[in-house]
Specification:
alpha+beta; Jelly Rolls; six-stranded antiparallel β-sheet; three-stranded antiparallel β-sheet; 3 helices; Cupin_2; RmlC-like_jellyroll; Cupin domain-containing protein; RmlC_Cupin_sf
């Protein structure tokens, strides 16, 4: 089991002086029931751009959501257990349940010929950093082995994370809401139309 995350949030007092608003464990830590051992540690999120710099309420309260808010960001750690043969054989219907638990089943792109059952895509720029353990980034074409210190810049591509090791991997993710370039959007629309035929 990975160690808990300690979160320190700063703020301002009535005189504008910097203070510690909170210091302690994360209030939102969610294990995905459909994939036991997969744990989302929600650290912070922002909505709108530029975000308000205020003493507002904790934005991690509420249900888990995979993508970032519109024009916003999402900052989280995810603990990813090793893939098992049972997990890999469960198929698309079970993975739809997993994505539903993350608040957006529509991000799943898994097809019968997908290279991994957790293939998905969000219209965002995501920074993914391996903190501990090993991970494999799987794309439509190719894959990349990742070790601690590896950083993936995910630019709205179809992908999955495969843990082919024998221990849990912890990754840090920062997701930034985005909009596809018109040429990429057109290619994606054409690809989706072809798949539905």
């Amino acid at each position: 089991m990975m160690p808990p995350i300690r979160r320190i949030v700063t703020g301002h007092d009535s005189r504008g002086r910097a203070i510690v608003a909170s210091d302690g464990p994360l209030p939102s830590v969610v294990e995905i029931k459909a994939i036991p051992g997969t744990v989302f540690h929600e650290v912070w999120s922002t909505a709108g751009s530029p975000p308000w710099v205020d003493n507002g309420p904790d934005p991690t309260a509420g249900p888990l959501m995979l993508p970032p808010p519109e024009q916003g960001t999402r900052f989280r750690f995810v603990d990813i257990p090793p893939d098992t043969q049972d997990f890999l054989a469960q198929g698309a219907s079970k993975m739809q349940a997993a994505f539903s638990e993350t608040g957006d089943a529509n991000v799943s792109t898994v097809q019968s010929d997908s290279p991994h059952p957790l293939m998905h895509r969000t219209e965002s720029i995501d920074y993914g950093v391996v903190i501990e353990g090993e991970m494999t980034l799987i794309l439509d074409e190719g894959e990349v082995a990742l070790a601690p210190g590896s950083v993936v810049i995910q630019r709205g591509t179809n992908h999955a994370w495969a843990n082919r090791s024998n221990r849990v991997c912890r990754m840090l993710f920062v997701l930034i809401d985005g909009t596809y370039d018109s040429a990429i959007a057109a290619a994606l629309n054409t690809s989706m139309e072809t798949e539905t035929r």
